[in-house]
Amino acid sequence: MPEELTKPVTEVKPTETVEPTLETPKPADDLGGFKSQESKDAVLADLAKAREQIKAFEDAQAEAEKAKLSDIERAQAEVLEREKRIAELEATSARLTALAKYPVPEEYQDLVSGTDAESYEASAKRVSELVARTSAPGTPKPDMSGGAKHEATGTVAEQIAAAEKSGDKSRISALKAQQLGELASKLK
Questions:
Q1: Helices 117-135 & 37-101 angle (0-180, nearest 10)
Q2: Cα separation, 138 vs 133, whole angstroms
Q3: Are 132 and 107 a contacting pair, CB within 8 Å?
Q4: What is the mean pLDDT of each run of 10 residues along the chain (188 residues)?
Q5: In this structure, how many other beta carbons lie within 10 angstroms of the beta carbon of residue 159?
Q6: 110-118: which pairs have CB atoms within 8 A and are 24 or more residues apart?
Q7: What single DSSP character describes residue 136?
Q8: Nearest CA to 143 among 153, 130, 134?
Q9: Considering the entire predicted model, what is its pTM?
Q10: CA–CA separation, 173 and 31 (whole Å)
């Protein structure tokens, strides 16, 4: 009995692949319908050449489409850029028209803002009116010191009592620090 038949059969696990050990030889005269090996080789060479030509054609088509697409995309980008520039120029024109209608000093022109002609005009009108009110004669100038001023009336102790009554904790702290400073200078 041949050795192959006496060997035990082993199970094949699903993850393993089994390669056949014996190949069946093809008959030498099987040329797949061709009359000779040369004619078969010639047809296979022609087929390979045709496949290369098809691949080259497909690549050229893809490049042409890509070039066409990039022209379209480039044109779209130019259109968007021009539309953006036109919008900027229209906004600048609307702003300058509003500033011509409602004069605003140059240092306050940055306060005029908007998105369209009406909003620029409304903004310029408000800023112009505010500037006119603050520059009118007899109008008190705004206090730019940053807060209310506390007039010193009475002694420091009286000022502390008044600040405690009003609940002004920062003023209380400042007055008590002043009082401590005065006491320290007397001790020297």
A1: 30
A2: 10
A3: no
A4: 55 54 54 83 93 95 81 86 94 91 88 90 91 72 57 76 85 82 72
A5: 20
A6: 115/91, 116/91
A7: S
A8: 134
A9: 0.37
A10: 110
